[in-house]
Structures are given as C-alpha cells and as structure tokens.
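Why do we care about 3D structure at all? Because function follows from shape, and shape follows, mostly, from sequence. That is the central idea of this module. The next example makes it concrete: a single protein chain, its amino acid sequence, and then its structure expressed as tokens.
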Amino acid sequence: RKTGPVSAGPAGVAAAQADPRRAREIEMVEKIAQARTALLREIHKIIVGQNEVIDLLLTALFCRGHCLMVGVPGLAKTLMISTLARVLKLSFNRIQFTPDLMPTDITGSDIIETDERNNRHFRFVQGPIFSNLVLADEINRTPPKTQAALLEAMQERQVTAGGRRYPLEAPFFVLATQNPIEQEGTYPLPEAQLDRFMFMIRVGYPSFEEEREIVRSTTYDLDIELHPVLSGEGIVKLQQLVRKVPASDHVIDYALRLVRATRPKEAEPLPFVREWLSWGAGPRAAQYLILGAKSRAILNGRFAATCEDIRALAAPVLRHRLFTNFNADSEGVSPDDIVRKLIENVKEPDEKDYA
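And the structure:
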C-alpha cells in the first residue's frame, strides 16, 4: 500500500476525519514540527547560522544516531553541542581527548572500598560516558585503544567493566569533533569507529552577514536565557514516532542502489567507482539513509520518507564510508565529489522493477 506525505493542513484534517490512523499520523507530524521550531528558536539565541549543521544534528538525534563534526577551530562546534544539551534538558559531559587519555577515563573503573567491618569490596565508579549527551572533543588526538572505548557504548548503549554490564540511560547521543588541519600527533579513526557514526558533518565558515552578527553579539556582555524545549523522556517518545514513519520499497531500493554502487568489487561497478575507490560503504550506510530519511521527513512536516530525503543525506552518511585510492588522491577527488557523481548516475527504480 502506498503512503503519501501527511500534513496538518486543511486536506490533512479532512483526511483525518475519514481515517483515524491518519489523525494519529498528523498528530505525530505536529509534535515533531513544533519541537523543531522551538529548538531552532532557542539554539539560534546562541548560535548564528549553521542551519544545515543544526538540522543534521536534530535529524540524527531523533533516530538515535551519533555524529562526527569536522571543522577548523573557532567555528563554535563545542558551543553548538553544549547549547543543544541545555535546550534539550539533557545531562551533558565533555571529554577532552588527549594522547594520555586511558579507556577507564571514559568508561569508569572499579575501585576498592573498605566498609565498617573492614571488609574490602569493589565498587564501580561511572566515567563521563554515563551521560545523555557526550562530547568527544578532538577525538583523533587519542590512540586507537582509547578511541575503541566508545565502540560498545555507541553500538550497544552499555559499558562492560569487571565482568558486569552497565546500561546507559536513554537517550544517549555521542557527538565527536575533529580538526581537519592539524595532523601531527593525531590518530586517524579506524574504519570500525567511523562506521558507528551516522553522519560526518562538515562545519564550514559563516557567511559575511553571519560573521558580522557573531562579532557583534559576542563582543557585548549579553545575558541570554535559554528555555528547555524537550526532556529526555520526550526525546525518547519522538524517537519512537520516527521509527513509525513509512518508507516504501521504492525509497529503500533507491538507498540500496546508492550504497551498493559505492563498492568497486560489485558486479559491473560504475567506471569512476572502480577508478577512485578501494572500498565502499557497508549495510549500515543503507540503514542510516533510511532512518535519516524518516527523521528528515517528519522534521519537515511529512509522514513518509522520499528519495529526495535520501539524496539530501547521501553526503553526510557516505563521505566517511568511502575509501579513496591513490588515483583519486592524486587527482584531488574527494568522497563528496564521488557522492555527487553517484547521485547523478544512480537512478531511482522504475515501475517495471516491481512488475
């Protein structure tokens, strides 16, 4: 059964009166749309511009994804994340990744305690990972052993220590930052770690007008009050609503075609894929494309994911999952260039594909 986009306009109200299921769908759309409007209003009290970055953060948040933010210093990446935590009324911890950081500095560790009877026992002391929103600042400045301490938390939403498992409270959201310029003393994230991030978000310089407003607003002593918009419980409910957004076989097949086209060893790969890529994206990329499309759809007032949502999210989902070879590097071809060519060459499924 085909499901068209649902809106809360007059046509949507008329449809709701005829179909109770549509009434619930419209109510879901209204809740998410109202939350998005309120969130943007509060965040922009502190953050000037960066609309695309904020939209991607919210898109990932509402489908339980993690984000890696890449940008030069001074672009308010850390401020944006801390502001998001305040607006969402979430517990927030910032971990500054350094070369001497140990895994237990992130997850926590067992300590020996002595009770009044002089009996000794172990007690687990939680690390900063036990928070709703965790900022892993400059994540590539710590060795792979410490980076790997995040893997279980990001995927399983739990921490294992001393043979015991400690669940992380929902919602749980990891935002990592990375400086693309300074490479001395850094440790590139391994593929398994990169694949845990739903989006790699590139944070660019502001426009002239935005930078003027940034300079004006930050050189005065202003007292800005932020009003929390959502609680952790409210976010979990909205995350559950996003999972109910339908995605047709047409949209799923298009996402699969894009992802499978990135693999140079697939049957009959595109010529530029064979020439420029060593490895392509795995199945998790298609999962994130569909989840992101559902979240983006409902944030934009629709109750159905479309191929346009897939195209809009292709770059942040795929850019860190494409591994270029020497040919691409020597020609100055970036993963973003390859994603653009993929969108141009990979067509949506035709009706005959379902005959």
